[in-house]
């Protein structure tokens, strides 16, 4: 066979290329001394071969790969995660959180996931590879749990290579929650510089909450909102009639904000002190100012003074507001007719004198034993404000009286020569006793018999601890002022309002 024929047999077609079936070539220790590179087979993932030892460029993944006995291994670089654009997630906010992840070696088909501090993890709902250094991931906010913060961020390539941030990058920080209901916060009198109301919010993560008025309306009305405590304070600008100030309060904690709409009514307080119906709802029935007599400004029934044996020796002296009536020790009392009120509130200002000077433990303030009576009682070396009633059960007694307001933290015991606002409320459920606007005790025993409407009508007494005239009438030496009677049980907010108003004068 000629050389020409042998060469011809190697050719597969007229194009002159050598057919692979005609060529049997093996190489050992190949060395490419060129500079531009050696081209290897290139194809998609679907075009992979199955022979062990094959080396190729995968045009689908963009990486070189080689096959071992059963699968392909890639030269793909491992992803790295360095940072995220949003380090706090409001898990209670609802909806989704979009997080931009920065790192290296990101490739098409990668999946972002988030790993909690206990190792729990979840994948992003969607992962979009923006570039080799940026991924945009979207995940439900509710998937981030406060107990699992901080969350590390993981990126896994399509081939399974994964890189995780060295530290936790995402914390859970929910927006603060308002405790105070939206709407009216009550009243602020224009001539009183006190704390008119307090708004409260809390942060689920325990961060400090700061308060602000986004509208500036409080400042325009002469009021201020305390950033640290949510208190609305100040001497409101004078008004000629009730003026509603609406504002939006913002609670801020951990960079998160929650807004809520409130309002406060600025009232003209110039004549409020001597107004019988203090709340303007027809609940205020009587007001005894004791300027020079026992006149009831409400016109229900005036108060008289005296004692069967000692006669009248009351005096009208400087009180908390103008004059008040001083009742001396010896049993003198004031008395007025019984009221047909099952639900009621009695409020007065009292200036005790000579407490501890006499042996009697129980000193009457207002009411009667058969209907229930506000008293001062000496107990455990201190005078306390309490409620006396002839049928109290033994478990609720200390001697002849219910437990006293001073038993509760924040409610002061009484001392001489100090003005106190004392309040007794009653409704179909309970009786409550307050000192200076602070609830001291709630009484629920034998409540059906506690009333200002006795079955056998008796007068209501001020300054005597007995319904029997001249018998065991323990006088309470001191000055009484601005005794009010309401035909309803005042709420805590109303009591606070009354105390704030009267105490500022």
Q: What is the topological layout?
A:
Elements: H1 3-10, E1 41-43, E2 55-58, E3 63-67, E4 72-74, E5 80-84, E6 88-89, E7 96-104, E8 111-115, E9 121-123, E10 126-131, E11 134-140, E12 152-156, E13 162-164, E14 171-172, E15 177-178, E16 183-189, E17 193-198, E18 201-202, E19 210-213, H2 217-220, E20 224-225, E21 231-235, E22 243-253, E23 256-267, E24 284-288, E25 304-306, E26 315-318, E27 323-327, E28 333-336, E29 344-352, E30 362-368, E31 372-379, E32 382-388, E33 397-398, E34 401-402, E35 420-426, E36 431-435, E37 438-443, E38 460-462, E39 478-486, H3 492-503
Parallel strand pairs: 1-2, 6-14, 16-23
Antiparallel strand pairs: 2-3, 3-4, 5-7, 7-11, 8-9, 8-12, 10-11, 12-13, 15-18, 17-21, 19-22, 20-21, 22-23, 24-39, 25-28, 26-27, 27-39, 28-38, 29-35, 29-39, 30-31, 31-32, 33-34, 35-36, 36-37
Describe the structure.
The protein has 505 residues and is mainly beta. It folds into 4 domains: 39-75, no CATH class; 80-172, Immunoglobulin-like, CATH 2.60.40; 177-267, Cadherins (Immunoglobulin-like); 284-503, Sandwich (Jelly Rolls). Helices cover 5% and strands 39% of the residues. It has 3 helices and 39 strands. Strands 24, 26, 27, 29, 35, 36, 37 and 39 form an 8-stranded antiparallel beta sheet that branches. A hairpin with a 5-residue loop joins strand 20 (224-225) and strand 21 (231-235). The longest helix is centred in the C-terminal third of the chain and has 12 residues, at 492-503. The relative contact order is 0.09. The mean pLDDT is 86.
């Amino acid at each position: 066979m000629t050389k020409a024929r042998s060469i011809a047999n190697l050719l597969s077609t007229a194009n002159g290329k050598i057919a692979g079936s005609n060529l049997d070539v093996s190489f050992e220790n190949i060395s490419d001394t060129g500079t531009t590179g050696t081209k290897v087979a290139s194809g998609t993932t679907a075009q992979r071969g199955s022979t062990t030892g094959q080396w190729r460029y995968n045009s689908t993944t963009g990486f070189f790969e080689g096959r071992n006995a059963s699968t392909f291994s890639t030269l793909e670089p491992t992803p790295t995660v360095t940072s995220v654009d949003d380090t706090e997630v409001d898990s209670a906010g609802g909806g989704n959180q979009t997080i931009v992840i920065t790192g290296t070696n990101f490739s098409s088909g990668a999946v972002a996931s988030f790993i909690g501090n206990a190792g729990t993890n979840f994948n992003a709902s969607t992962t979009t590879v923006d570039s080799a250094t940026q991924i945009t991931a979207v995940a439900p906010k509710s998937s981030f749990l406060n107990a699992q913060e901080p969350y590390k961020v993981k990126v896994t390539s399509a081939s399974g290579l994964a890189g995780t941030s060295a530290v936790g990058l995402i914390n859970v920080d929910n927006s603060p929650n308002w405790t105070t209901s939206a709407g009216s916060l009550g009243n602020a009198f224009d001539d009183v510089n006190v704390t008119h109301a307090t708004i409260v919010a809390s942060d689920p993560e325990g961060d400090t909450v700061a308060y602000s008025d986004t509208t500036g309306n409080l400042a325009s009305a002469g009021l201020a909102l305390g950033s640290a405590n949510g208190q609305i304070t100040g001497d409101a600008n004078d008004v000629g009639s009730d003026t509603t100030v609406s504002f939006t309060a913002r609670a801020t904690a951990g960079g998160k904000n929650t807004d809520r709409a409130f309002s406060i009514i600025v009232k003209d307080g110039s004549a409020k002190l001597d107004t019988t119906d203090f709340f303007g709802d027809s609940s205020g029935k009587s007001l005894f100012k004791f300027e020079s007599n026992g006149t009831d400004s409400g016109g229900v029934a005036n108060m008289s003074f005296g004692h069967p044996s000692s006669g009248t020796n009351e005096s009208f002296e400087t009180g908390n507001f103008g004059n008040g009536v001083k009742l001396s020790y010896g049993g003198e009392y004031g008395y007025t007719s019984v009221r047909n009120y099952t639900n009621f509130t009695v409020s007065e200002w009292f200036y005790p004198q000579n407490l501890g000077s006499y042996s009697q433990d129980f000193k009457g303030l207002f009411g009667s034993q058969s209907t229930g009576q506000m008293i001062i009682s000496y107990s455990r070396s201190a005078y306390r404000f309490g409620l006396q009633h002839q049928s109290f059960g033994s478990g609720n007694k200390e001697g002849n009286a219910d437990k006293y307001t001073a038993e509760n933290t924040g409610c002061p015991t009484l001392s001489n020569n100090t003005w106190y606002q004392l309040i007794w409320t009653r409704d179909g459920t309970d009786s409550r006793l307050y000192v200076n606007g602070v609830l001291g005790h709630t009484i629920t025993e034998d409540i059906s018999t506690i009333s200002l409407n006795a079955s056998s009508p008796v007068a209501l007494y001020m300054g005597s601890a007995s319904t029997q005239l001249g018998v065991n009438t323990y006088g309470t030496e001191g000055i009484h002022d601005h005794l009010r009677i309401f035909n309803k049980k005042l709420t805590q907010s109303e009591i606070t309002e009354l105390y704030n108003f009267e105490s500022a004068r």
